[in-house]
Structures are given as structure tokens and as C-alpha cells.
């Protein structure tokens, strides 16, 4: 009897840990990482102009979706988890080329799209991918259906934004609350092996002066 109680206690704690730890390992996160050759060869900082991305067209990756787990909310959480319902349409955020579309470890069925300036967007846990690597895709194009493949406890989209292979908070590009594209410029500064990504302060000052 004692042994059974112990076994139940162990199984219970394992299931809690599994619920608690759906983030990717650093190996998994790094395997998605591909640098853009020469991106920082001229300057230590590069700028992403969101207004010009807006002109080319953009789409929120899961329209009407609600963030159920923010970037960095759990240790190693490299993106934002956005939820609507099972098998909902996942849309490409900007024009680009599909760099990867396949099942990969805890990411499950994952699509990686490369855009201008080395920006990449990643769409993971799909029940099905609708594009192939090498496909040219447009903003708003359906690229997958939401699911829970890989390490996921519910149907949702794990959405990442990356520059030069390094993930950063997608909330810097999209207002994840209302699904709109943010305004202005994002500054990406090389710092050792990493990159610091943030809203360009100069840009914000100009915006404030205009008010
Ligand atoms: Zn996630």
C-alpha cells in the first residue's frame, strides 16, 4: 500500500513537471538558428523599419488570437503562445521565403520564414504545415493549421521573431494585445555573440516631439 502511494506521488509530480516545462531546450532553440551572412559587417547596429514593412503588407499570424504565455514568461520561452481554436489558419506575417517546413523535436510541425533584413518568423506546433521549404510566401498567406504537435499541452501557435538567428520578443514588432503592427523603427545592435533588439529611442523622441 505504501509503495502504491509513493508511486502515485511520483507519477503526480512527473505530470506536474511536464505541464510546467513546455519550453524548448537550448539545443532545440539553437537548431532553428541561422545567421544572415554579412548582416553586421558594415555596422554594429541595423534598423528594421516597421512602416516600410507595413506598406508591403503584414498580417497578424493568428487573427483574433489571445496570448496565453508571453515571451520569456517561462525559462527559455523563445516566443509568444497565441491561442484561438484547433486547426485555425496560421498566416504568414510578412512577404518572404520559407526556409524550413518540417517536424522538428519539441517544436512539432514548424515553419520558418525569412523576410527582408534577416528578420525571420517561426510558427510552431502546427497540426499541419501548408507550405514547403523554398516556397515564396506573401503576407497573410495561410501557411499552417494550429495544433499541438511537439511539446505542447494545448492547441496553440508558438510564434517567434528572430534577427540573425536570435529570438526576441515578438511584442516589439506586433502589439500582441490587438494584433496591430507597431510603428517606427527597431534597432538591432550586435553585442558579443548576441544581439540587443529594441524600439529605437531616437525614433520615439521624434514621435513625441511631433505630438
Ligand atoms: Zn511557446
What does this structure look like?
The chain has 4 helices and 16 strands. The protein is globular. It starts with a helix and ends with a helix. By secondary structure, the protein is of the alpha+beta class. The protein has a single domain, classed as Glucose Permease (Domain IIA) (Distorted Sandwich). Residues 12-20 have low confidence and may be disordered. 33% of the residues are buried. Strands 2, 3, 5, 6, 7, 9, 11 and 12 form an 8-stranded antiparallel sheet that branches. The chain has a 3-stranded antiparallel sheet with strand order 1-15-16. Strands 4-10-8 form a 3-stranded antiparallel sheet, with no helix packed on it. Helices cover 20% and strands 36% of the residues. The structure holds zinc ion.
Q: What is the overall number of helices?
A: 4
Helix proportion: 10-25%
CATH H level, superfamily name: Glucose Permease (Domain IIA)
The domain count comes to: 1
Pfam families: Peptidase_M23 (PF01551)
Signal peptide: 1-18
Organism: Bacteroides faecichinchillae
Protein name: Peptidase family M23
